[in-house]
Design goal:
Blueprint: E1 2-3, E2 20-25, H1 30-40, E3 49-54, E4 71-74, H2 79-89, E5 95-100, E6 103-105, H3 109-119, E7 123-133, H4 142-150, E8 160-162, E9 170-174, H5 175-180, H6 196-204, E10 209-220, H7 230-247, H8 252-271, H9 279-294
Parallel strand pairs: 2-3, 2-5, 3-4, 7-10
Antiparallel strand pairs: 1-4, 5-9, 6-10, 7-9, 8-10
Protein name: GT2 family glycosyltransferase
């Protein structure tokens, strides 16, 4: 199913402007995604298209009443499935910015990434500077996010920083590269698809540079509603890095870093009785994945059985 206006054709070569779309995969959080879409209108450089993909119309109930220009898509549940659907629908765009439905951009975010993609033809993927990330704590409100973005901060050391991967909550790609190499998000990674950003970034890495644009700032609210159960996420924290190491899109050092960091955080959070995150459930998922690893049954899809 697809509703809303389709993006118009790419601008003529040499026009100095790229066509930039904002792509949001969402599920079960219509009020949150609605506020995020409304804030996109505050960008100093307007988005050429806003695309939203959900598993069903119920997931975005009431979202379209006052937002007729948003392109509406329905795709199978799971972040990789939904993001692949968004890429398919962006066939007339040059750049596609993947945003989590709870990511708040600074007003110059789109202008900053457009300048980088325009001036640096070898850059094929960008990510912004997350000035605050609520995913590691109780989270932030929209008001807190805007206050943090407007607060004075020390300027970054440079404009661009080479990075290993984009951060999936705000990650823009040059679609010409994606199309030319038939790149897709890996649908073997289910649901929230832990580390799908690493996998997709490293799939793109042979074709150009991956850059953090320091002036493209944002706040990740880390809204807790609508996320997968803690035991499933805990399983994915072990299974997905192991899968990507075997696949070749994550170095073993990077993968072991992710595994050890999450095991330590879940154990420590469980022992100290952390309230903001369900550490005991995540730790249980970690342990179930470790058991499957030792019995050679470990696979990302097994998280769906928990």
């Amino acid at each position: 199913m697809e509703n809303g206006s389709k993006p118009s054709k790419s601008r003529e070569p040499g026009s100095g402007q790229l066509r930039i779309g904002v792509a949001i995969a969402t599920a079960g959080r219509p009020e949150i995604v609605g506020k995020t879409i409304d804030l996109i209108a505050l960008q100093s450089r307007a988005a050429d298209a806003i695309l939203v993909c959900s598993p069903s119309e119920e997931d975005v109930d009431g979202l379209w009443e006052d937002r007729p220009g948003v392109i509406r898509l329905v795709g199978p549940r799971g972040l990789p499935h939904q993001r692949n659907r968004l890429v398919e629908a962006a066939d007339n765009l040059d750049i596609l910015l993947f945003l989590d439905d709870d990511f708040v951009m600074d007003s110059r975010y789109l202008a900053e990434i457009e300048a980088v993609f325009r001036d640096c033809p070898d850059v094929i993927l960008t990510t912004g500077r997350v000035v605050a990330d609520g995913i590691i704590g109780p989270g932030f409100s929209f008001e807190e996010a805007r206050a943090r973005l407007s607060a004075p901060t020390a300027p970054p050391a440079g404009r661009l920083t080479e990075v290993y991967n984009g951060y999936g909550c705000n990650m823009a790609v040059r679609l010409e590269t994606v199309r030319a190499n038939a790149l897709k998000f890996d649908e073997e990674l289910p649901l929230y698809a832990w580390l799908e950003d690493v996998d997709f970034s490293r799939s793109m890495a042979p074709f150009g540079r991956i850059i953090r644009v320091e002036q493209a700032k944002g706040v990740h609210l880390g809204v807790k509603s609508g996320r997968q159960r803690g035991v499933r996420l805990g399983y994915s924290q072990i299974a997905n890095p192991c899968y990507l190491i075997a696949k070749g899109t994550c170095s073993w050092k990077k993968g072991l870093f992710h595994i050890s960091r999450n095991l330590a955080a879940n154990l420590y959070g469980t022992l100290r009785g952390e309230k903001a995150v369900d550490r005991p459930a995540r730790l249980l998922g970690n342990l179930k994945a470790m058991a499957d690893l030792f019995t050679q049954r470990l696979a990302p899809s097994r998280a769906l059985r928990l």
